[in-house]
Specification:
Radius of gyration: 27 Å
Largest sheet: 5 strands, antiparallel
Strand content: 5-15%
Number of strands: 13
Structural class: alpha+beta
Shape: globular
Helix content: 55-70%
């Protein structure tokens, strides 16, 4: 009850100050001061509110942009708790003195956050350097108590929230609370690390620290020490002779793989959590805040990219509903012109002028003016992309994020055998039933660019013969599966066959020139014998599909 009174009193005083500013007509001029005041207030109210502030810093559907920018400071600037307390917690989790496990441990914290802090130590048994993450003392009951009070207070705001966001305020608190409670259990973070290790096990450009399960518990996490340069020190990265372009390309590709391929992505890749390794690799730390995208959501995101490429704004608006940004049944027609204006303004001058921050700024206004609610997982997606784009701009101010992202998406569309992605590729290549030759050429050029960028990274210059043989395929755009699937589709799908024949004979002439142009683009990438072998192997499946297609057509005629 006392905590409830403290929260209501402090927030009430702050709200009263905002109301006073509005009544006297100075609400806009004091925004910077009020934003700082809010940040300090959240710090004073403790870890639950610091975490809430960090979340609000990425929720344009709830708070305006100038306040968001101020609250971003909470993501990096949190005071640590005493070493003696931290060391006692570590000993309790280990069940033995520090000296029995570590030969040395840093006297100062390496990093401090709202829920815990990190030390560097050396293992006695192996001499390996490790990072020890230890949770703040007695934080769990504080978090549970505050979440209960948050939810109680939110129940009084349900009416306003339903009107503005299309959902009740308790749902927003539930989403926040679920993620926060996951971060409190370090055994879950250990599992997240192992999942990331599994996802990137065959990727030589990404470094994920291993976790020492036998030394970790619910309040202490012991991980491999990452001997790299934090992205908070861009000058040090440049002075170390690291190929900045190659490093950023690797970073963008790793981020997109997390989002569109694995569906498990790092929710807080701020510069302190991302390292540049001296061999060109990218390394991640702090896996407490990760998010999972379902297979359906991954496909809808790729759909959204396809609809953006096709400038199909009606379907882009429908994607919002499918992703949960809009309540089911919401009329999307008012949003369509706004989406078109945002996209046209952002890419009207080409990819070189595109950046996520400008798009997000315009999107924030859209969110503020329409009943759009950003689900928690997608607020993390937005924050992840913005943060990583910010790292890119810090290291290389003229870096073009989309010029790296688009080639990756193009390569996925052209080479991924996933049936859902094959459907998206067809959707991209056909517009209003007409085959888009120029679009196919553009996709191939972009995909080749992605392969060239990735293969030139120093992290791929390995000496191990087994690895180099495995990576050799990645140095070329492998279209074998795509050609095989395309051939099968041509013979089994009557609609596709008709459209391709029309594309080759459009305007009463054979379009051999376009076909030759496409072949020239892929000539160096094709291994004709391998393609022939794959096609021959696929003959039984092809005959089966042909028979099924024929039988379906016969049955439909009847």
């Amino acid at each position: 009850m006392l905590r409830g009174v403290e929260i209501v009193w402090n927030l009430g005083l702050y709200w009263s100050a905002l109301m006073y500013d509005f009544l006297v007509g100075r609400d806009e001029e004091v925004v910077p001061y009020r934003a700082r005041q809010l940040r300090n207030l959240l710090c004073d109210l403790g870890p639950s509110f610091i975490k809430a502030g960090q979340v609000l810093a990425n929720r344009p559907d709830i708070i305006r942009e100038d306040y968001m920018n101020e609250l971003c400071i909470l993501q990096d600037d949190v005071p640590p708790f005493p070493n003696q307390v931290a060391f006692k917690i570590i000993e309790e989790e280990l069940g033995q003195p520090l000296e029995a496990v570590f030969t040395k441990i840093s006297s100062q914290t390496i990093a401090a956050a709202s829920l815990g802090q990190v030390y560097r130590a050396t293992l006695r048994d192996t001499g390996e350097d490790v990072a020890i993450k230890v949770q703040r003392p007695q934080i769990e009951p504080i978090i549970y108590r505050d979440l209960f009070l948050f939810r109680t207070l939110a129940s009084f705001l349900n009416g306003i929230s339903l009107q503005k966001l299309g959902c009740n305020a308790e749902l927003i608190v539930d989403e926040f609370g679920e993620k926060l409670l996951e971060e409190l259990d370090y055994t879950l973070e250990a599992r997240n690390i192992e999942d990331f290790l599994e996802n990137f096990k065959d990727d030589p450009t990404v470094k994920i620290p291993k976790v020492y399960r036998n030394l970790s518990g619910s309040r202490v996490l012991v991980m491999e020490w990452i001997d790299g340069i934090r992205c908070t020190a861009p000058q040090a990265i440049k002075e170390a002779g690291i190929d900045v372009n190659g490093f950023l390309t690797v970073g963008v590709s790793a981020a997109l793989r997390q989002l569109l391929e694995f569906g498990l992505f790092h929710g807080d890749p701020h510069p302190g959590n991302v390292f540049a390794m001296r061999d060109g690799r990218i390394a991640y730390v702090d896996f407490g805040n990760v998010a999972v995208l379902s297979q359906q959501n991954k496909q809808i995101l790729i759909d959204a990219v396809v609809h953006a490429v096709n400038e199909d704004y009606v379907e882009m608006a429908n994607d919002f509903t499918r992703l949960g940004f809009l309540a089911s049944g919401t009329d999307v027609s008012p949003i369509i012109p706004a989406l078109e204006a945002i996209w046209q303004n952002s890419v009207g001058k080409g990819l070189s002028d595109f950046n996520f921050r400008s798009v997000t700024g315009k999107f924030n206004q859209l969110v503020y003016n329409y009943p759009i609610r950003i689900p928690e997982r997608f607020s993390l997606v937005i924050r992840s992309l913005l943060t990583q784009e910010g790292i890119c701009f810090t290291l290389k101010p003229d870096f073009k994020f989309l010029e790296v992202a688009y080639p990756y998406v193009a390569k996925r569309l052209l080479t991924d055998p996933n049936p859902a992605l094959r459907e998206r590729l067809i959707e991209v290549l056909f517009k209003d039933g007409v085959f888009q030759w120029k679009r196919l050429e553009k996709l191939i050029v972009l995909a080749k660019e992605n392969v060239a960028r990735m293969s030139s990274n120093p992290a791929l210059q390995v000496k191990n013969k087994q690895n180099s043989r495995k990576l050799q395929v990645e140095r070329k755009l492998d279209l074998t599966d795509t050609i095989r699937d395309g051939a099968r589709l041509f013979f089994t799908d009557e609609v596709i066959r008709r459209q391709l024949i029309l594309a080759l004979t459009e305007d009463s002439k054979l379009h051999i020139e376009e076909l030759v142009d496409v072949y020239k683009l892929v000539e160096d990438e094709l291994d004709i014998p391998s393609v022939a072998v794959e096609v021959v192997r696929d003959i039984p499946a092809f005959i089966r599909d042909l028979i099924l297609s024929w039988s379906d057509s016969v049955l439909s005629d009847r």
